[in-house]
Design goal:
Structural class: alpha+beta
CATH topology of the largest domain: Alpha-Beta Plaits
Protein name: Peptidase S8 and S53, subtilisin, kexin, sedolisin
Strand content: 5-15%
Organism: Pseudomonas nitroreducens
Number of domains: 2
Order of helices and strands: HHEHEEEHEH
Length: 179
């Protein structure tokens, strides 16, 4: 077949079923999963969250809405429940994927430069838009920092753990660079 013709040919077309949505590892024993939900255009993510929470509860799963976030038209929600209930959970029609919750990895930051003290002023005005939302998963932030209102939502992965000074310095540098 000529190369140009290959682009016109479909190899397979199939309806996505519940099993296609499950991306959890079979040999894993975890009970915490990340669910990606499609938020229909013009619909409220909060309403979708409520509908899914009721459905998930009926399937034996609980949601932790403190850690959910929306990226574009996708809402990512952490759920906890038995792995054997995933097939029922995946029947939710607006679900795109359910997968094992990604594990956070600790890694010592690599020093690529030496600290330089440069004076600067943060903008006093409100941002032009609060629409872009970004998650920074890094070493954390020190208890006192200059970013103030520019960081709207911050939480620790483990509130009982002590801060590692190098990690929070790196986290502050990454967050500052992003902003």
């Amino acid at each position: 077949m000529p190369e140009g013709q290959q682009f016109r040919q479909f190899e397979a077309v199939a309806v996505m079923d519940a099993q296609d949505r499950i991306r959890a590892q079979e040999n894993s024993t975890g009970t915490v999963f990340e669910v990606g939900l499609h938020v229909p255009v013009g619909e409220d993510a909060g309403e979708l969250r409520s509908l899914f929470a009721a459905y998930a509860a009926a399937c034996g799963f609980s949601l932790n809405q403190e850690f959910d976030f929306q990226a574009g038209r996708l809402l990512f929600v952490p759920v906890e429940g038995e792995r054997r209930g995933l097939a029922a959970l995946a029947q939710f029609s607006l679900m795109r994927v359910v997968r094992d919750m990604p594990r956070l990895r600790a890694a010592r930051p690599i020093a690529r430069s030496s600290p330089v003290t440069v004076s600067f002023d943060l903008p006093a005005a409100d941002p032009l838009s609060r629409e872009p939302k970004v998650a920074v998963l890094d070493g954390g932030l020190p208890e006192s920092h200059v970013l103030g209102d520019h960081v709207r939502r911050y939480f620790l992965a483990d509130e009982s753990a002590d801060d590692v000074p190098e990690y929070v310095a790196h986290g502050l540098a990454v967050t500052s660079a992003l902003l």
